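User: Reviewer 2 asked us to show a designed sequence for the structure in our supplementary figure. I'm pasting the structure tokens here. Could you produce the per-position amino acids so we can include them in the response letter?
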């Protein structure tokens, strides 16, 4: 049986000056600009035929606050497809509260890197299918890594960062992805700081490096400029799902148009 590829819109949510939840977009995790209301956008994507939906509270970890669960509840009321929520999840209790708020899965980055046993605890308590480990990767051109890829003729490795890309960890992404899978992660969410917001395409070397060494399904993220980029990340890197934000937010492409493009090129997708 051939597994279908998934198309997943994502919203990056932060608090605005008045303390209200709002969606923002940026480049390289910086220069964030207001994009819309999270609940309205969730409703729109649910109706548009998205396969899943991702809600990321992008400053919860860096600010040391909890996830905005009231907003998650409102989004969950509008979404009848699998909902993944990330940002500020630090403990098994946080996972439980996020799932109770309506999430089907939780995405964990900073807390899992700081205390890897959290992956085991989450998988044991709630099932591996609920635990998505997110990595915010950046390229490093030095000799401190474990797994190397060629990028534009140079050898580089990919470093895990935390707190929304603000801090490096010295940890190799591919090594950490393998450990997270062994500990019970049901899925890996691979973000590239280097391609984020550029619309120049996904980070193929990064995504391929993870897909080729980890048995866990991989969601490719960061850099999508259109359906051709999704085709590339599926066929050249082996991703199981492709996540995009701005091309959908600003209605450059619709989800049905992307699916039609992929289906015409024999990529198995969900109708």
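Assistant: Here is a per-position design you can include in the supplement:
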């Amino acid at each position: 049986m051939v597994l279908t590829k998934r198309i997943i819109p994502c919203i990056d949510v932060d608090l605005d000056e008045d303390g209200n939840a709002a969606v923002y977009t940026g480049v390289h995790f910086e220069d964030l600009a207001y994009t819309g209301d999270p609940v309205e956008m969730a409703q729109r994507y649910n109706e548009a035929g998205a396969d899943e939906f991702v809600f990321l509270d992008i400053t919860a970890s860096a600010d040391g606050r909890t996830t905005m669960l009231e907003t998650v509840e409102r989004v969950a009321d509008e979404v009848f497809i699998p909902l993944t929520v990330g940002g500020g999840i630090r403990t098994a209790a946080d996972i439980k509260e996020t799932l109770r708020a309506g999430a089907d899965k939780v995405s964990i980055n900073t807390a899992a890197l700081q205390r890897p046993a959290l992956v085991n605890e989450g998988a044991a308590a709630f099932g591996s299918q609920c635990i998505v480990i997110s990595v915010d990767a950046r390229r490093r051109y030095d000799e401190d890594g474990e797994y190397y890829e060629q990028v534009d003729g140079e050898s580089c490795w990919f470093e895990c960062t935390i707190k929304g890309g603000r801090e490096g960890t010295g940890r190799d992404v591919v090594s950490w992805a393998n450990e997270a899978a062994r500990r019970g992660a049901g899925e890996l969410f691979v973000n590239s700081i280097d391609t984020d917001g550029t619309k120049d395409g996904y980070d193929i070397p990064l995504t391929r490096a993870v897909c080729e060494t980890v048995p866990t399904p991989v969601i490719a993220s960061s850099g999508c400029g259109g359906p051709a980029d999704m085709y590339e990340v599926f066929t050249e890197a082996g991703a199981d799902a492709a996540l995009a934000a701005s091309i959908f937010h600003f209605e450059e492409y619709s989800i049905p148009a992307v699916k039609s493009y992929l289906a015409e090129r024999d990529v198995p997708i969900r109708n």
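For the response letter, you might also mention the following. The mean pLDDT is 92. Residues 38-48 form the longest helix (11 residues).
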